[in-house]
Design a protein that fits this description.
Elements: E1 16-24, H1 27-39, E2 47-53, H2 62-72, E3 75-81, E4 85-87, H3 92-105, E5 109-113, E6 115-117, E7 123-125, E8 127-129, E9 134-135, E10 142-144, E11 146-147, E12 151-155, H4 172-183, E13 186-189, E14 194-196, H5 204-220, E15 224-227, E16 232-235, H6 239-245, H7 248-261
Parallel strand pairs: 1-2, 1-3, 5-13, 8-14
Antiparallel strand pairs: 3-12, 4-14, 5-12, 6-7, 6-11, 8-9, 10-13, 15-16
C-alpha cells in the first residue's frame, strides 16, 4: 500500500522539551557542562544532548554547525550553548518559568539568553564570571538587539536559522537575532544565571567577520524596487523614501529605466 498523506496538526508534540546543542573542542569540559545541566534537572528523559566534534580540527564552523543543530533538534526549545558554561543556582524549573513568563509578556519571542546588547549604548548582562563575580541586570526581561553566544534558547516553532553566506565563530548571536527580527520575532535577556568561564576573544578573525557581516546586511537591507506577477512596489527602511518610491510616477519611471537599461535576458547571467 503506498504511503498515505499525513495530516499536520496545529499543535504537534515535540519528542523532547529541550535540545542542548554544543560545538565541542574539549570533551572533558563538555562533559562537565553536561553533568551540571543534568544535575539541575535537564535529564535525558526530557532533554536530548547534541554535539559536534570539533576536537583537533573543525568539522563545522559555528554558522553551519548551529544550522545543523536547528535542523536536527527535536526539542520544543533548542539551547545553543558553549562548552565552557556551568549551571550553578538556576536549573530547569527556572528556565521553564522564564519561558512561561515570556509566553505571557510577548508570545512572539524567538530567542532568549543571559546577555546581549539593548542598543548601540546599553548592554544587558546577567551572568557569573569564573572569578565568581556576578553581573546582574535589574530590569528583566529586557528586549535586546543581539544575544551573547554563550547561552541562547531558541523557540523551535520559530524556525530560525543562521545566514548561509556568513561563516566562522563570531557574531552568530547577533545574526540569529536579526533573522528573528526579520521573521517577526523578538529577542530577550532573561533571569537565568549561570557561570561562563570565558571573557571572549576579539582576535583578527573577529573583526574580519564583523566587516563581512556589515557587508552582508548592507546588501540584504538595501532599498529596492520589487515586483510580483500582479503588482509593483518599493521597499525602504526610510518612511519618506518608501512613500516617494511607491508613487505612480516613480514606479513608472523605474519601469522605464529597467526597460531601457536592464533587458530581461541580462538576468540569465546576472548574480545576486
Amino acid at each position: 500500500m503506498p504511503p498515505q498523506p499525513r495530516k499536520i496538526e496545529k499543535n504537534e508534540p515535540n519528542e523532547f522539551e529541550f535540545s542542548i546543542c554544543t560545538l565541542v573542542t574539549g570533551m572533558a569540559e563538555y562533559l562537565e557542562m553536561r553533568e551540571s545541566f543534568i544535575a539541575k534537572g535537564f535529564t535525558t528523559d526530557i532533554c536530548e544532548y547534541l554535539y559536534i566534534d570539533n576536537i583537533g580540527q573543525n568539522s563545522f564552523e559555528a554558522y553551519a554547525g548551529l544550522n545543523r543543530f536547528l535542523k536536527e533538534a527535536k526539542g520544543r526549545y533548542i539551547i545553543l550553548c558553549h562548552q565552557d558554561i556551568l549551571l550553578k543556582d538556576h536549573g530547569i524549573a527556572d528556565l521553564q518559568l522564564r519561558i512561561s513568563e515570556m509566553d505571557q509578556i510577548d508570545p512572539n519571542w524567538g530567542a532568549i539568553g543571559n546577555a546581549g546588547s539593548i542598543n548601540i549604548k546599553y548592554r544587558s548582562v546577567h551572568i557569573i564570571q569564573t572569578s565568581g563575580k556576578s553581573n546582574t541586570e535589574q530590569y528583566l526581561p529586557m528586549r535586546v538587539q543581539t544575544l551573547d553566544e554563550n547561552f541562547i534558547v531558541v523557540k523551535n516553532s520559530a524556525n530560525l536559522a543562521l545566514s548561509a553566506n556568513l561563516g566562522g565563530f563570531h557574531f552568530y548571536g547577533a545574526d540569529i537575532c536579526i533573522v528573528a527580527d526579520v521573521l517577526g520575532y523578538n529577542s530577550y535577556v532573561v533571569d537565568f544565571m549561570l557561570i561562563h568561564k570565558s571573557e571572549g576573544n576579539d582576535d583578527e578573525r573577529y573583526y574580519e567577520l564583523k566587516r563581512k557581516m556589515i557587508q552582508k546586511y548592507r546588501h540584504a537591507f538595501r532599498s529596492r524596487f520589487m515586483g510580483t506577477t500582479v503588482t509593483r512596489y518599493y521597499l525602504s527602511g526610510s518612511r519618506l523614501q518608501s512613500a516617494l518610491g511607491n508613487t505612480r510616477l516613480v514606479l513608472f519611471l523605474a519601469r522605464q529605466f529597467y526597460k531601457l537599461f536592464n533587458k530581461q535576458y541580462y538576468y540569465k547571467k546576472l548574480k545576486g
